[in-house]
Amino acid sequence: MPNLKELKNRISSVKSTRKITSAMKMVAASKLRRAQDLAESSRVYADSLSFILSSLAGNTKNSSDLPEILTGRENSKISLLIINSSDRGLCGGFNSNLFRNAKNWISEQQEKGKSVKIITVGKKASSFYRKTDLDVIANFDDLNSNDKQLQVSEEIKNKIMELFENNEIDEVSILFNKFVSVIAQEPTYQSLIPLSNDEADEEMTDTSNAVFEFEPDKNELLEYLVPRNFLTQIYRSVLESSASEHAARMTSMDNATRNAGDMIDGLTLTYNRTRQAFITKELIEIISGAEAV
Amino acid sequence: MINLKVVSPQKVIFEKEVEMAVLPGAEGDFAAMPNHSPFISSLRPGQMVIMSANKVDESFFVSGGLVMLKEKVCEVLVDQIESLSDVNSSNYQQSKTFQELEGNETALGTFEQVVNNPPYK
């Protein structure tokens, strides 16, 4: 028969766990709202920028006129993957999904004969990839404020520009958890070098009726635009990832709170039953003692 | 009237109908008015002015960026922007833009110059 004291202790410990998880859920919910607003309001800039870039690149008929950094190098050998994880845990499958996905992607690239280098964002990714034998170039973490997110995006941008110019990398992709809804986040790849065309193609139909004049000329404009575009794309992925993180944490903490509630119900039932059994046993002892006299 | 939309990487700063906006293009200032030919330009650090009836309504300092001009729409993608009605020659050193651009020689010079000596009055 379970010990009453033990049961009582377990109930109170599960209760305090429930308090913690429900508080974390509420914190995540309020942070999620802010992160979602940020992600949405930054979309306007990113959309306009990619529109300008695609009309600029689309206007240049001969793709060999475009700089390498836009079209990518032929026979690319080294790909760089930027992995956006979270700084903290307790957010369900958020990070493990991402790492599983990255693993598949990396082995795919290696089958194609490319070597893979990695930049990690967030403490979880840096501690995960430290244990592997992959080539991690840089870590960025502590992305807890918006200013910091922008600053880190800027640093990553400078890093990849520098690496590309030194021929240390030929391709760049970003991996992040795309925010689909509060209950669904989807690991997503986005190619930075070469520039991914899927968005550009849709927009091109729009541009066909408006032919833009450019000032200064296209190449100078591209020189300004390409790094700016990297920055916005990276920044956007960081924001999406942070919105996803809070959403993932909110759902997993919600589940944890519910599980704790179920557990408390079960334990309370056992506690009451045991207590009742003790009382009955004592009564039987008293009655049978009285009868014996 | 032309729809002027000013956007920074973080958010839409404002969006409104204006008669004319003068922007510091990379190769010289230009005015955005309705039915301008489609035009994309980068911006140098300088002053952006919104005008109506030949008078300055509002003026801003922009630290650089891009502008996309279509028939009825003028989209300005700025890096940083500061309303010059909030900033004048006595307090510009306290402004956020000034502090962020400090050490950036070209922009610092221009910001100071623009505040102390605006080209449009």
Give a quick summary of the entry.
The complex is a heterodimer of chains A (293) and B (121). Chain A has 293 residues and is of the alpha/beta class.
Number of strands of chain B: 10
Structural class of chain A: alpha/beta
And the CATH topology of chain B? ATP Synthase, domain 1
Strand content of chain A: 5-15%
Strand content of chain B: over 45%
Characterization of this structure:
The complex is a heterodimer of chains A (293) and B (121). Chain A has helices spanning 4-59, 68-71, 94-111, 123-130, 146-165, 198-207, 218-292, and strands spanning 78-84, 115-121, 135-140, 171-179, 185-193, 213-215. In chain A, helix 1 packs across helix 6 (198-207), helix 1 (4-59) runs antiparallel to helix 7 and helix 5 crosses helix 7. Chain A has one domain: ATP synthase, F1 complex, gamma subunit (Pyruvate Kinase, Chain: A, domain 1). Chain A is elongated, with a radius of gyration of 28 Å. Chain A has a 5-stranded mixed β-sheet with strand order 3-2-1-4-5, sandwiched between helices. Residues 200-205 of chain A have low confidence and may be disordered. Chain A contains 7 helices and 6 strands. By secondary structure, chain A is α/β, with parallel strands linked by helices. Helix content of chain A is 65%, strand content 14%. Chain B is mostly beta strands and 121 residues long. Chain B has one domain: ATP Synthase, domain 1, CATH 2.60.15. In chain B, 15% of the residues lie in helices and 48% in strands. Chain B has 2 helices and 10 strands. Chain B has helices at residues 96-101, 105-116, and strands spanning 2-7, 12-18, 20-25, 28-32, 39-43, 46-52, 55-62, 65-69, 73-78, 81-83. Chain B has a 5-stranded mixed β-sheet, with no helix packed on it. The longest helix of chain B is centred in the C-terminal third of the chain and has 12 residues, at 105-116. The radius of gyration of chain B is 14 Å and the shape is globular. Strand 6 of chain A pairs parallel with strand 5 (39-43) of chain B, so a sheet runs across the interface.
